[in-house]
Design brief:
The complex is a heterodimer of chains A (269) and B (221).
Chain A: E1 6-15, E2 18-28, E3 33-37, H1 44-51, E4 59-64, E5 67-71, H2 85-88, E6 91-94, H3 106-121, H4 126-146, H5 162-174, E7 180-184, H6 192-207, E8 212-215, H7 219-225, E9 228-233, E10 236-241, H8 243-248, H9 253-268
Parallel strand pairs in A: 3-8, 3-9, 6-7, 7-8
Antiparallel strand pairs in A: 1-2, 1-4, 4-5, 9-10
Helix pairs in contact in A: 3-4, 3-5, 5-6
Chain B: H1 3-39, H2 44-59, H3 62-77, H4 88-114, H5 118-126, H6 131-161, H7 173-184, H8 188-215
Helix pairs in contact in B: 1-2, 1-4, 1-7, 1-8, 2-4, 3-4, 4-6, 5-6, 6-8, 7-8
The chains are: A alpha/beta (269), B mainly alpha (221).
Chain lengths: 269, 221
């Protein structure tokens, strides 16, 4: 078996006295899509945020392509820890509430971070910089085309629908070529009729071979798009397997109850 | 005495008022940001020191602060004020105004920064932006947009406050108007000065309105 693209070991996280993650570990191969499901407050978002260095775990390690990008042993003071930029950029994150920068156009949202990196890399090389910036601009145009929003390039995010904003947020994350793209409940802030357009983009990415981790409440979607599903309850992985195993033949009682409740509530809608 | 003659005599004073106004803004706006950072510092002692500073500056009259700063070298160190040269009076006025207004601006910045959703910082972080880039490129422009209305209020107050400089004998527009009124036994110089203050503030409000419009092209949550 190849070196896993992601290997997470023994992630623990405590807030005050409350243990949110009690030793979570899993691994992924390149091109796999992993869905993380579970009740609110179960720790799935904290896990995803830990991968993106938005939370600093108390224990555990994270390796990407065999390279350790996080080891809790490195961290002496929680508030001071900041991942190396090259480690941070191994991951991309799409937020539940998009978090686009409202003062910039759609296209500028895509190019901003890449432009800043290029300006740093080519500080003394004007020709190199203008070539790099042109390339970034072209890439942004291509991505906007791919999410069908070329005509909105110069609009402000606030002039877009929620679904459009979330597609822009996905494109923004893709601009930096993350090794693993993470989604934190990407459709939870959207009206039901707008979720499809976002899910379609994620599905396209899977078909293009993108390695992705998706925290979601969309069970049908998780079932159809994932290679692997993890069910997190009370801060630990209570069950994991293929979508068929997890959704059709749940072994643990907590998962059975969770699925029953979830499908029941989605039928009510 | 005609309005034109009054304007002619007021001219010198208007220049000083404008000087106080623009120099105060030039220095107090950035200083206010630094004080806001101090106030928001994680270190409790640093934060408390800046908190006390803001509290004193906002809690005592600007006129009193003017006196303190102007006379401090003499009363604290027995240095005759004449040693500082002809411009000392104006320097003291501007220093007092800057220190006072920076405290108000600091609180405005602080409220603006505190109102920013944490998601904006997080989005910048996952895009690999540094703390400096995050603050100056992502956060500050949005803060400026949020705080423009309260800043406009302060700037308008500043226009009127420049007249306080007369308290330590600095000749500016109001002092000048007073002198002319006394010499000519007429209300007219006050009326002219009042109209000038009003026009000045009208221009300020108009200018800030344009800025709000420029920043208002996008909506924020």
């Amino acid at each position: 078996m190849n070196t896993p693209i992601l290997e997470v070991k023994g992630i623990k996280k405590t807030y005050g006295k409350k243990e949110v993650l009690g030793g979570v570990g899993f691994s992924m191969q390149r091109g796999e899509v992993l869905s993380i499901i579970g009740s609110s407050g179960g720790g799935k978002t904290t896990l995803l945020r830990s991968l993106n260095f938005l939370e600093v775990p108390d224990e555990g390690t994270i390796c990407v392509e065999g390279e350790t990008v996080f080891d809790a042993a490195w961290v002496k003071k929680q508030s001071k820890f900041r991942a190396k930029p090259e480690h941070q950029l191994k991951f991309g994150l799409v937020f539940q509430s998009f978090n686009l920068f409202p003062q910039f156009s759609v296209k500028k949202n895509l190019t901003l971070a890449a432009d800043l990196q290029a300006k740093k890399a080519y500080a003394k090389d004007k020709a190199g910089l203008s070539a790099a910036l042109a390339e970034i601009s072209q890439k942004a145009d291509d991505l906007l085309n791919r999410i069908n929003l070329s005509d909105k390039a110069e609009e402000y995010p606030s002039n877009l629908s929620g679904g459009q904003q979330q597609r822009v947020a996905i494109a923004r994350a893709l601009m930096l070529n993350p090794t693993i793209l993470c989604f934190d409940e990407p459709t939870s802030a959207l009206d039901p009729e707008l979720t499809d357009e976002v899910l379609r983009v994620i599905r396209d990415l899977r078909d293009a071979g993108m390695t992705m981790i998706i925290v979601t409440h969309e069970m049908e979607f998780a079932k159809s798009v994932s290679d692997k599903v993890i069910f997190i309850a009370r801060g630990v992985i209570a069950e994991e397997g293929t979508p068929e195993e997890v959704f059709d033949h749940p072994k643990c009682e907590a998962l059975r109850r969770f699925l029953k409740r979830d499908f029941a509530s989605s039928n009510e809608e | 005495m005609s309005v034109f003659q009054i304007l002619n005599l007021l001219w010198e004073g208007i220049g000083v008022s404008l000087k106080i106004f623009f120099l105060t803004l030039l220095f107090s706006l950035p200083l206010g940001l630094l004080i806001a950072f101090g106030r928001m510092a994680k270190n409790k002692i640093v934060s408390a020191i800046f908190g006390i500073y803001i509290s004193i500056m906002r809690g005592t009259p600007l006129m009193l602060q003017l006196f303190v700063i102007y006379y401090l070298p003499y009363f604290a160190f027995k240095i005759p004020l004449s040693t500082f040269g002809a411009n000392y009076r104006l320097t003291a006025v501007i220093l007092a105004f800057v220190l006072n207004y920076a405290a108000y601006f600091a609180e405005i910045y602080r409220s603006g920064i505190a109102s920013m959703p944490v998601g904006q910082y997080e989005a910048a972080k996952v895009l690999g932006m540094s703390r400096g880039q995050t603050f100056f490129i992502v956060i500050l422009p949005q803060v400026v947009r949020r705080i423009l209305p309260p800043v406009t209020n302060e700037v308008i107050t500043l226009v009127k406050d420049t007249s306080l400089a007369f308290a330590i004998g600095q000749i500016e527009m109001f002092t000048k108007a007073k002198q002319i009124a006394a010499a000519e036994v007429s209300m007219l110089p006050y009326v002219v000065a009042g109209v000038l203050y009003y026009i000045f503030n009208f221009a300020v409000a108009y200018g800030m309105g344009l800025l709000e419009k420029k920043f208002g092209k996008y909506a924020i949550k």
